[in-house]
Design a protein that fits this description.
The chain is α/β, with parallel strands linked by helices. It contains 19 helices and 13 strands. Helix 3 crosses helix 19 and helix 6 runs antiparallel to helix 17. The radius of gyration is 23 Å and the shape is globular. The N terminus and C terminus are likely disordered.
Length: 474
């Protein structure tokens, strides 16, 4: 099988770097943890900043010997301008104390926050990890995404689709990089997994066809100005699409089971799970739809599936890498973010977006022809090992790191921090103007941008404080 990608030559980093990763969630982000662990193995000094030490990220990093700090990593969703001011100020102070050579932020809220904080703090290099295309697909979020990208040294797309969107909307070519996020593939091997144990735990017969999906349950969005009309009142991961495909599959394979693994994201996500249970009952398929909750034994859970289905309405690679590493045949929705991993009729089947009958037919095709399904799974694992390994991801990042010599020793200059704090309102002014046009409701600007524009004056006091004290002592 011939694929589209030729890996670049490896370029080792000549000196270890201090790299701080930033995420807006205290839980999850497995790709970030995997990248940090591999970077530590390669000699880099890595640390993380998360909003709280109460989630699972901090203890997982502690087990790896990686320090983790708690501070504000999301000023986008703060409730008041005071919280935004305090949050940005705190992150600036922490970055100036840690003095990293590189800040690598992940997920939209942390990307925006870390961009501004890193720029004010005079961090040598800031890498933005664009983990999904959502912030570029819709005008409101795109205005914020692109408007703050001036603070990036590199804007890293994690799919070709996201890279193409960055190019389309004017991010400078030399600023854009493509690095596929991956996981530690060493733990994902079909011969080492025990899918039979998971089936016994879930009460599923060993010979029953199992269609599975592993993903968080994100509550339907209800903000048309932010996410557009097509996603209104819809779950982004398409769980409802999979459930609506079940009646057709059960007509032909009545003993089939659909296993939806994951937990609700926050209270709205938990309520969404209950809605999906009610949907399954209304369709008469509740006996075939299982909600086992969140599981840590992902390879074993995947091994219990016959087919992995990802029918997101918008997404990046999502869980396709893990599924294909386990040689699972896949059926996915035809969204651009899946096109790097799931190649139609090579590593899986691609069906129209938000189309339960088409999804059902894709599933049935694989259940009817198990040899064809097996071949797709084998092709998928081969493709993942060729390009979507953790070593390849971190090597790609090392190539980017080797392309610059900027280090902490020449940065964290107080005068520059003060100047940038004062300049920030000017840099944010285009965002404010564009959001005015989009929203057409000037009072709403008391939300994000108008409050952010007040931050520099407050930050200036913090940045200037030590300078003033030194001058008074002298």
């Amino acid at each position: 099988m011939q694929f589209f990608y030729t890996p670049p030559p490896l370029m080792p980093v000549t000196r270890p770097l201090r790299i701080v990763h930033v995420t807006p969630t205290p839980t999850g982000a497995p790709w970030m943890i995997a990248i940090m662990a591999e970077q530590k193995k390669r000699g880099h000094d890595v640390a993380a900043i998360v909003p709280s030490l109460d989630g699972d990220i901090a203890p997982r990093l502690a087990a790896l010997g990686i320090p983790c700090y708690a501070d504000t990593t999301n000023i986008v969703n703060s409730l008041s301008h005071r919280e935004r001011i305090a949050g940005l100020r705190g992150l600036v102070k922490l970055l100036r104390r840690l003095r990293p050579d590189v800040v690598h932020s992940h997920i939209f809220e942390a990307v925006v926050t870390a961009r501004l904080a890193s720029w004010i703090a005079d961090v040598p290099r800031h890498f933005s990890g664009i983990v999904g295309p959502l912030s570029l697909e819709f005008e409101f979020l795109r205005t914020i995404e692109l408007g703050t990208s001036f603070a990036d040294t590199k804007t890293i797309a994690s799919s070709r689709y996201t890279r193409d969107l960055l190019r389309q909307f004017g991010v400078p070519e030399e600023q854009i990089e493509l690095v596929f996020y991956a996981i530690d593939q060493s733990g994902h091997h079909p011969e080492l997994a025990d899918g039979a144990r998971v089936r016994r735990e879930l009460g599923i017969p060993l010979d029953a066809p199992v269609i599975g999906k592993i993903a968080y349950f994100y509550a339907p969005v209800n903000a048309p100005l932010v996410f557009g009309e097509k996603l209104m009142r819809r779950g982004l991961k398409g769980h409802d699409v999979l459930i609506r495909s079940a009646p057709r599959v059960l007509e032909e394979f009545p003993d089939a089971r659909f296993v939806l693994v994951g937990r609700g994201w926050g209270e709205p996500g938990i309520a969404y799970v209950e809605y999906l249970r009610a949907l399954a009952k209304s369709l008469g398929v509740e006996h075939a739809i299982l909600f086992p909750g969140e599981r840590r034994d992902i390879p074993d859970t995947l091994a219990s599936f016959d087919i992995s289905a990802h029918c997101s309405l918008t997404d990046n690679l999502a869980g396709t890498v893990e599924s294909l590493l386990m040689e699972l045949p896949m059926v996915v929705s035809n969204i651009p973010g899946f096109r790097d991993t799931v190649l139609h009729e090579k590593t899986g089947l691609v069906v129209p977006v938000d189309d339960p009958p088409a999804l059902a037919e894709g599933i049935l095709k694989l259940l009817r022809d198990r040899e064809y399904a097996r071949q797709l799974g084998q092709n998928g694992r081969q493709w993942m090992l060729e390009r979507f390994t953790l070593e390849r991801t971190v090597s790609d990042l090392d190539v980017i790191l080797a392309g610059s010599t900027r280090r902490a020793e020449q940065h964290y200059r107080l005068r520059r921090s003060l100047f940038r704090a004062l300049l920030l309102p000017v840099r944010l002014l285009p965002i404010e103007r564009e959001l005015r046009r989009i929203l057409q409701q000037p009072t709403i600007l008391r939300g994000f941008v108008s409050r952010v524009s007040r931050i520099p004056r407050k930050v200036a006091r913090v940045v200037l404080g030590p300078f003033r004290r030194r001058r008074s002592v002298a």
